[in-house]
Design brief:
Its main location: nucleus. Helices cover 31% and strands 17% of the residues. With 496 residues, the chain is α+β, with helices and mostly antiparallel strands. The structure holds S-adenosylmethionine.
């Protein structure tokens, strides 16, 4: 058997495989024949390079926007880079429940890495081995292996990842059950905050799988309202904290504050349906290797603006008969092209991964050191989306009813008040947000964040009421005093 493997390495005699396209993980490799446990499948070929070269190349690849990592470690000082040249083994994806593994072989005095079956594998099965990513900084890459024991992120098991992200460690007795309780406590706290006091529709939640006991913790947390800097879950019992990585959305437009900007702005998730959609929120500008999950969002914002436009172009009293050019001009006046504060690009994945043991995948980026990151913050540029704003005065003018006009103006006033309240609250918490680097946000009092959430929710509510009053008055104009206009069905009371 040993001899056979040796020969196979030498003669490049590999098991028959087929390249496939996977869901979300790029290409993958299928096996085209049944194989037995321990069987040699394929050699991981590529350029053998030094660790310095590996670091340099990885940074270059990241800068070039290459999402996939193809560098694996051979030993402490050398690596195999299959990015540009390599065998099909480079297409084998990672799994937390792998069916094959990497093994080192010495062939004619040379160390080589082979992929071997960990179990009997049937024809048509996708090959996957555990990358054992060693993460040492940068953004996180969601693992899509689908295994029951999935560690959620590539490299999540590595020490660097756990320390950096404050992941609860296995066997951390001090807060094992406390974290579950913590999740529940947060859940109720924020549920109450959102559903009873705020009455906001912007409810979102996070599911955090407890690493120690495997339970999923549901956390209701409107953290889009918080700057990324204070997006953490705190255990109220043991004060342990962790970042919230993943979030699910229930609304299409989610306000998000970017501390590089002066005012809150809008962020749209790349997907919108609650419970199913997901997105990983990290800082794009911090790291050069980026997947931009917000590209689609811009289109969405435009289409949202269009849908508001079409709602408001429901014929208004006094303007209903004016069709054609004149109406269009009037219609266009209803909006002012405010240049809204910048739109932070948050949906980004990248990882900086190194390895010091053989067969580990390797992907080096600029590192996680916070100095480097904070130096990059001033350069952050975000897009100005030019979100359309409804011009209350122009809209109100179109209503025949005085009552309707007054109502719209009244709601606009409330909306403006809520906006300036929010700005005032932000001015209070600005030092807490901006004086600390992301790594030391434990110091930001959560009460401050809650204050902000409250004001943000009030502003959203006021905005909603304002828009709603326009639509409502357009669709169901107030009845005239003489009772000329009656709602359908003859009800005396008007439905809002
Ligand atoms: C060695 S390449 C594997 C082949 C790659 N899928 C391709 O299309 O070229 C490693 C990269 O594939 C992706 N990948 C592999 N396994 C993954 C997984 N379980 N979940 C998400 N992405 C994965 C990651 O982008 C990773 O950096």
């Amino acid at each position: 058997m040993l001899f056979t493997v040796y020969q196979r390495f030498q003669k490049c005699e590999y098991v028959r495989t087929k390249l496939i396209k996977t869901e979300g993980r790029g290409c993958g490799l299928l096996i085209e024949e049944n194989i037995k446990v321990g069987q040699f499948i394929i050699e991981y070929c590529g350029e053998v390079i030094s660790s310095e070269e590996a670091k340099q190349r990885s940074e270059t690849y990241e800068a070039q926007g290459l999402k996939d990592a193809y560098i694996i470690s051979l030993d402490a000082n050398s690596f195999i880079d299959a990015t540009q040249k390599g065998s099909l083994a480079r297409f084998i994806n990672h799994s937390c429940q792998p069916n094959c593994e990497t093994r080192k072989w010495t062939v004619l005095g040379e160390t080589r890495v082979g992929i071997f079956a960990k179990q009997d594998i049937c024809v048509g099965t996708e090959l996957a081995y555990d990358y054992n990513f060693e993460w040492y900084g940068g953004a996180t890459v969601r693992c899509l292996c689908g295994a029951a024991n999935c560690s959620i992120f590539l490299g999540a098991k590595s020490h660097g990842f756990q320390v950096y992200n404050h992941v609860w460690e296995d066997g951390d007795d001090s807060c094992q059950d406390a974290h579950w309780n913590c999740g529940v406590m947060w859940m109720f706290e924020f549920k109450e905050l959102i559903t009873n006091r705020m009455k906001t529709t912007c409810v979102l939640f996070d599911i955090w799988k407890h690493r120690a006991n495997g339970l999923s913790v549901l956390i209701f947390y409107p953290f889009y309202f918080l700057p990324s800097a204070i997006r953490r879950v705190y255990c109220l019992l043991c004060k342990h904290s962790t970042y919230l990585f993943e979030c699910r959305y229930t609304v299409e437009e989610i306000p998000l504050y970017d501390s590089a900007e002066d005012e809150p702005s809008l962020k749209l998730p790349n997907t919108t349906s609650s419970f199913k959609s997901e997105s990983i929120v990290t800082e794009k500008s911090y790291y050069p290797m980026i997947i931009d999950g917000t590209v689609g969002s811009e289109h969405q914002l435009e289409s949202n603006a269009r849908s508001v436009e079409s709602l408001c172009s429901v014929p208004l009293e006094g303007a209903a008969m004016n069709t054609g050019k004149a109406e269009r001009t009037e219609d266009m006046k209803l909006y002012s092209q405010d240049s809204q504060p910048a739109f932070p690009q948050k949906n980004v994945m990248a990882s900086n991964i190194r390895s010091d043991s053989a067969g580990r995948n390797f992907n080096i980026g600029p590192g996680s050191d916070s100095k480097k990151r904070s130096q990059q913050i001033p350069n952050r540029r975000s897009k100005h989306l030019g979100r359309k704003q409804v011009n209350a005065k122009d809209v109100a003018r179109l209503f025949a009813s005085k009552e309707a006009r007054e109502e719209v103006m009244e709601y606009e006033e409330i909306k403006n008040q809520a906006t300036s309240n929010l700005n005032a609250v932000y001015d209070q918490i600005r030092p807490a947000i901006e004086e600390h680097e992301r790594d030391s946000q434990d110091n930001v009092p959560i009460a401050e964040g809650e204050k902000w959430i409250k004001s943000e929710c009030s502003k959203l509510k006021a905005e909603f009421n304002f828009h709603f009053s326009i639509v409502k008055n357009a669709v169901c104009p107030p009845q005239k005093a003489n009772g000329e206009t009656k709602p359908e069905g003859g009800d005396d009371e008007q439905t809002n």
